Amino acid sequence: MAWLTRNGLNIHYEWTTSENPNAEDTLILIHALGMDMNSWNFAIPYLRKNYHIMRYDIRGHGKTSAGEMKRTVDLFHEDLLFLIAKLNIHSYHIIAHGLGGFFGVQLAAGGDQELKSLIMMSVSLHYPKHLGNKVVDQRKEVTADRQNMLELGRRVMNNAFYPPTEEKVKVLLDSFEQVSPEVYFEIFDTDLLGIGVDLLRKITTPILLLSGAEDPMFPPELSNASLYLNSHARHYTVPQASFMIQMDQPEIMTEWIHSFIQKGKSNKTHDMLPVDYQHELTKEMYAEIDDILNEQEYTAPTLQVNVMNGFAVYINGQRIHDGWGQRKAKQLLVYLIFQQSTTREELCDIFWSEVDLESAKNRLRVSLHHLKKLLNADNDEADSSLLGTEREHVFLQTHVQSDLLLHMKAITDAHRIESSVEKVQAYKRLLKDVTDNPTPGLYEEWFLQLRDSIEGEWVEMARYLADMHEGQKEYGEAIYYIELALRYHVGAGELMGQLDRLKTS
Prior knowledge:
This protein is of the alpha/beta class. It is 48% helix and 15% strand. The protein is built from 20 helices and 15 strands. It has helices at 44-47, 73-86, 100-108, 129-143, 150-160, 166-176, 181-187, 191-202, 220-227, 245-248, 250-265, 277-294, 329-339, 344-351, 357-375, 403-415, 420-431, 445-471, 475-488, 493-503, and strands spanning 2-6, 9-16, 26-30, 52-56, 92-97, 115-121, 207-212, 233-238, 302-306, 312-315, 318-320, 341-343, 387-389, 393-396, 399-402. The strands form 3 sheets. It has an 8-stranded mixed beta sheet, sandwiched between helices. Helix 13 (329-339) packs across helix 15 (357-375), helix 16 packs antiparallel against helix 17 (420-431) and helix 19 runs antiparallel to helix 20. The longest helix is centred in the C-terminal third of the chain and has 27 residues, at 445-471. The radius of gyration is 24 Å and the shape is globular. The two termini are 47 Å apart. 35% of the residues are buried.
């Protein structure tokens, strides 16, 4: 443990030296409101491979005292500047989570040349104020007459993780228990929203926004809205993650952040867009969506994409048979059913990272033309294509269904079931659907990570059922589920040991 004292305030921080002896850059980690620096524990082993790390507890959180002054964004900003100066940090990147993102935005808007990028996770800088006021009022009701925010932590813990585990929940509850309502609600205020939006517009530093695909509190749509406010921002949706991305998917998060940072250093040239391009794109896109929704006779077609038991595509029930093995049509479509909307640059990074950007863009252009033809094969109206392709963005403009999406949602719902009897039934139903490979024929790194994540969910459900049956001395059932888990977690010593024990019971 280490402390620095600023005007009588003891600030708790931790410095971690990179495992890479050539590392030059430092990551400054800012935790979310109610949390503390331990929220980064899962990610530190991955982040330290390439970067030095400085993480700290903000005022009134963790082991940092609250101080006597009223907590404001400016005060938190000054604390951060103090730490950077005292620790002599140069060439750094900020990774900020939740409302901690406001402190990162405040610093980035100041134009410090040593700040190389700003990464924000589960940060809603643009949030509807009326709904925001309702959320604030609800949280004040929950914590009324209480000494800490523990009860609120209990209310949000099931939605904060994908899935909530005992280890993750303990970190959250331990941190919420140390925060007073006075400190919490001085910061958690909708008046911050206007400040964040104004500052975001001023930032010229590269910005990466990360959202959890399964986050019900701050869904990806909120971060997408922030793209409208700053042309330097990029947004990625992390699969199999909720609000606490750094705890749900620390490895994926680190890999994407590292790729973003390295890309910023490569000084690749990009097509120049008009200054008002994103403003006009967003304005016109939402205007056209409103027009579509107001047309009573319009019914968007249904796109069904099945993956788990053989790849098949249906439009309004009619199967599209041919062409999916060409020009990465299959891979692009499956990626789009998860993202719905993405950028050309992101697609180039994922599917053609081995070539230069210009070559990747040319390949993407050809592939999108081919995919659009496949999805529009029986439709003579070019303007009603299921695939939208703008200069910067690519998106599906239809109702999307998929066996894989439904399976992943069912896993999320099952984890949140409180009744152990109902949870067991749900897990057993889901495990009947397991396959040798949930994403067959998809070998890009993004899909391999998705596959690993899904198979990890199967392993955890199988282990849960095995433990339950072993506790009830139903050894045959327990063996079945351990062997199922080993199909996707080969060589796991703990599982092998449990299996040997069961077979001798």
